[in-house]
Amino acid sequence: MTDRRHFLNTTLLASLGLTNMNFAFRDTKAKTLKPTALKKGDTIGLVCPAYSAFVKEDVQITIESLEVLGFKVKKGDHIFDRYGYLAGSDEDRAADINKMFADKSINGIMAMHGGWGCARILPLLDYKTIQQNPKVFIGYSDITALLLGIFAKAGLVTFHGPVGSSTWNNFSVENFRNMLIEGSIVQMNNPTKKGDNLVQVDDRIYTINGGKATGRLIGGNLTVLSHIVGSPYVPDFKGNILFLEDVGEDIYRIDRMITQLKIAGLLSQLSGFVFGKCTDCPPSKGGYGSLTMEDIFEDHIKPLKIPSFSGAMIGHIKDKFTVPVGLEATIDAGVGSITLSEAAVNK
User: Fold this and answer.
1) Does residue 241 form part of some domain?
2) Is 197 exposed, middle or buried (0-12, 13-18, 19+ CB in 10 A)?
3) What does pTM read for this prediction?
4) In the chain, N or C terminus with fewer CB closer than 10 Å?
5) Could you give the residue numbers annotated as active site?
6) Which residues form the domain of 116?
7) Residue 346, domain member (yes or no)
8) pLDDT means per 10 residues in the chain (347 residues)?
């Protein structure tokens, strides 16, 4: 992602002997924990595990939005702290999350926004306390590191969905409500609106390989995921469905990161693949030409011969799905649907 490019070493694993590395994955057959469904009157803990909340009005708008949904809000102790571009020290940002999980009055935890910094606090989280106090934990973008790390280390299903500063429109609220409040066995489908056009133009599904696949949903932001591969904070890919999204990346960088996943031997383990949106990721404007996202899928995903599609409502977009990380689902690549095998929360 563009706003983290100067903070991430894009050659983390790209050198000799990569496929011989001893990756430490969580066994996804181990016990999986689901959080309790949210309800009116519950308290949401608001944290900044990456960038600081520089604008207090943005936090206030988030609080008011969550209150309209029927929740109370408790801010993390360090939400307005600053250490350079971060919301305070690594220790303080991790402490806010640990405290929210330990606090019996908190029913769910939401990140205010992403940025960069979540991977720095992965070793500082109290995974035993998280296991003992399973709660809804939700966010996206840089929060991907925490979504994957918490599932990998504690077995808790987490949620790739709105952050506090997201646009809380009808589409996103309905998906959030169905997943986390109603506890429905959700089927995620893109909008099918044509508008004034003869055919649907926006939010179309691009089928890479047709068919259906079942497995646990694992994924999030491609940039973030590619930079924690090889750590103990990434779940097992074997037999699972990888979903990805990104923002503000040139196509060659998307190519490079997906290549990294491929030569690490991870893509070949998947049962299915979904790419959401790569917002503001146009072909390069240089004089040497560029590949397209479709070219990347044809080069790296199509040869896998697994059900796969792109265009799902996952990413840096206003209308977004709430996707459970670690829960089993079935994708139908022909129509671009994602159907959960069970409710993502306990009622």
Assistant:
1) yes
2) exposed
3) 0.91
4) C
5) 141, 245, 316
6) 43-180
7) no
8) 47 38 49 96 98 94 97 97 96 98 98 97 98 98 98 98 96 98 98 94 97 98 97 97 97 96 98 97 72 96 98 97 98 98 97
